[in-house]
Design brief:
This protein is an alpha/beta fold.
Length: 310
């Protein structure tokens, strides 16, 4: 478990992070979101031990990061947004060098480097100089050095930066595999990335924690989406008379199908509401093509949290 307690960080008179607290359980994949300048990078650097907090503390499995930095960092994989690499080094040599810095024993290094190359699909580029690689390939080298030695904690800053769609999909699959044995903190500007791999999100605003929520809870709404026949003239009135429904909005039609958003009364039983809605469609002489929970886009939640002026 990673626990951040009242973290603050000042740079001169500028406060980059102010009194941020949260805890992350084992094998969770957590998205760290926020606009530029919100404090994401500062938080990640403090969690990785590369930057000391002005106040507050970080503990990893009960051990204080400030007091046991080297021991904890050996269990950590970190991909910063701009990874410093050596363009004249071959990929395999660079990974071997990083493995040495991480304290991986000599007899284990070859296996660790080989695993990292395979997991990031960089085996064919192992003897290429880093300076000759494309931007996406360099990004994969960065991920490879982060996963060296099977770390228990991973901090990934924009891991799909520069990757094409196929490589992005592979990266999502890799993150899913890594989450079986590691706790992962993922910072990204791409909301689809968060939806694809994260189960929880932390949103920073002006250096403070503005939201900490499970992703499923953020997406849920008190509404149902109904798809039925386009020609049912009396259906809207019938739906509006249901005790569980507070509003009916026609969203549009496609061919012979029309879609409605049904706003439900707070606290009502959804199963009962769904049953009554289905009965309305049948009584109106229509066919039920679909009835499912309304989903709130993550972008909408993010903009709401940011408020005006962000």
């Amino acid at each position: 478990m990673i626990e951040a307690s009242h973290l603050s960080r000042q740079f001169g008179r500028n406060t980059a992070v102010s009194n941020v607290s949260f805890s992350i359980g084992d094998n969770q994949v957590v998205g760290l979101l926020g606009p530029n300048g919100a404090g994401k990078t500062t938080i990640m650097r403090m969690l990785s031990g590369y930057l000391e907090p002005t106040t507050g503390s970080v503990t990893v499995n009960g051990e204080n990061l400030g007091q046991n930095a080297y021991c904890i960092q050996r269990q950590l994989g970190y991909l910063p947004e701009n990874l410093p690499v050596y363009p004249d080094m071959m990929v395999a040599d660079y990974l071997d060098y990083v493995a040495t810095i991480k304290g991986i024993e000599r007899k284990e290094r070859s296996r660790a480097v080989r695993e990292a190359l395979i997991s990031t699909e960089m085996t064919s580029r192992a003897v290429d100089k880093i300076g000759t690689l494309s931007r996406g390939q360099k990004q994969r080298v960065g991920v490879a050095q982060a996963v060296l030695g099977r770390p228990r904690f991973l901090i990934l800053d924009e891991p799909t930066n520069g990757l094409d769609p196929r490589q992005t999909e592979h990266m999502r699959e890799l993150i899913g595999q890594l989450s079986r044995r590691a706790t992962i903190i993922l910072s990204t500007h791409i909301m689809q990335e968060v939806d694809a791999v994260c189960e929880r999100v932390l949103v920073l605003r002006n250096g403070q924690l503005a939201l900490d929520s499970e992703l499923q809870a953020l997406h849920s709404t008190d509404s149902l989406i109904l798809r039925t026949d386009d020609s049912l003239e009396n259906l809207t009135g019938m739906l509006q008379r249901l005790p569980q429904v507070t509003a009916v909005t026609a969203l549009g039609d496609s061919g012979e199908c029309r879609e409605y958003r049904l706003q439900l009364r707070e606290g009502c039983d959804r199963d009962t509401a769904a049953g009554n809605i289905s009965q309305c469609v049948l009584q109106a002489g229509g066919r039920l093509y679909g009835l499912e929970p309304g989903v709130r886009p993550l972008e909408e939640v993010f903009l709401e949290v940011m408020g005006d002026g962000q």
